[in-house]
Amino acid sequence: MRVAVVGATGAVGSTILRVMEERTFAADEVVPFASERSAGRTIEHSGSSLSVQALSEEAIQGFDLALFSAGSGISEEWAPRFASAGTTVVDNSSFWRMKEDVPLVVAEVNPEALEGHRGIVANPNCSTMQMVVALKPILDRAGIERLVISTYQSVSGTGQQAVEELRDQAHAILHGQNPPPASVYPHQIAFNVVPQVEAFREGDDHTTEERKMMAETRKILGREDIGISATCVRVPVYVGHSESVNVQTREPLSAEECRDLLAGAPGVVVLDAPGDGIYPLAIDAAGRDDVLVGRIRRDPSHERCLNLWVVGDNLRKGAATNAVQVAELLSLRGLMAPARAA
Ligand SMILES: NC(=O)c1ccc[n+]([C@@H]2O[C@H](COP(=O)([O-])OP(=O)(O)OC[C@H]3O[C@@H](n4cnc5c(N)ncnc54)[C@H](OP(=O)(O)O)[C@@H]3O)[C@@H](O)[C@H]2O)c1
Fold first, then answer.
1. Is 190 in the pocket of ligand 1 (CB under 6 A)?
2. How far apart are alpha carbons 298 and 44 in whole angstroms?
């Protein structure tokens, strides 16, 4: 199998290469793509030095699979070109996620949505991804009426430049200097908490990230009737998104039943002994593929509401790992045929 990794020099792309190596993904050849700025740079992968290519019509021919993480604009333009050339695309950007004929797939939650794809498969937003892995078993057992979500999202969710912005500001402040002005974020992120993840569209009092969480969750779970309220917040953490999720079920579900259910769920690890200081932490989730869930408890204000604390590595399960899992499923199920090109 020939695999293109588009955005290979970025936060997600470099993690995709690492995850492919760890899972010994069956690729005969891997070609990293990035912008013109990186063309010619070499990347070490599985014991070989790979030369980074810029995107061009000639360079994109002959691939079975393309894993995209180079932003929405690149995905809008280049994913259909790869698909037309007979390549199956798994895209991490937001551009294709809500298109009706594009499946939005989380490996543990809705793999059946891959059937009938038309050349492009979308990977959800990172904060949505980790949450639905924890919600799916609850949905299947007790139904879900409403979700109230608050996120605490790490800077790597914005990409490599945001990681550098946090590092540079924190370094300056810790050395008694004025921090460099914010450029990636609207405000200083070091030693701060910013209640804005992504942008406010004109006339909308929710951010684009909050809108994505609401819309993508309903699409993946296949339930348009779930009420969802989301507040997305950026915190000065390098890797790992944390989420407080209040779940109102349709049928009664005790905290104990929920804990047992999640302990047996694929992709979930329950860490829930709060009296002993055991609960999910971003620093423990970083570098892991599992979604960590803890602080599972009854919401005292409602008999059918539970509170959960859900933590995941946004670069791994939130993006790269799921993309590679989806590629494995496509291959396993014989769904990578060029005949499916859009
Ligand atoms: N970070 C996360 O946790 C996360 C999670 C889920 C989804 N995503 C999505 O994944 C995508 C990438 O995010 P990221 O965090 O990895 O960003 P990033 O660190 O900024 O990386 C962006 C990548 O895109 C490449 N690129 C930029 N312009 C290009 C062009 N004209 N042609 C080809 N490649 C180009 C960059 O190459 P150069 O190095 O040459 O500039 C780099 O490899 C975004 O759509 C994001 O929404 C991110």
1. no
2. 48
Span from the CA of 19 to the centroid of ligand 1 (angstroms): 16
In order of 34, 96, 106, 272, 333, the CA distances from 5 in angstroms are: 8, 17, 19, 37, 21
- Nearest 5 degrees, angle CA 297-CA 217-CA 318? 85
Distances (CA, A) of 247 to 31, 214, 244: 43, 14, 10
Nearest residue (CA) to ligand 1, atom 12: 69
What average pLDDT does this structure show over 301-330?
98
Tokens of 59: 């360079």
Residue 246, token pair as written in the block: 């209040």
75: amino acid identity, one letter: S
* Spatial contact of 317 and 290, defined as CB atoms under 8 Å apart: yes
Nearest CA to ligand 1 atom 20: 159
As a whole number of angstroms, the distance between CA 96 and CA 76 comes to 8
Task: Check whether 9 has a pLDDT greater than 80.
Answer: yes
Structure tokens at 168: 């540079």
| Prediction pTM value | 0.95
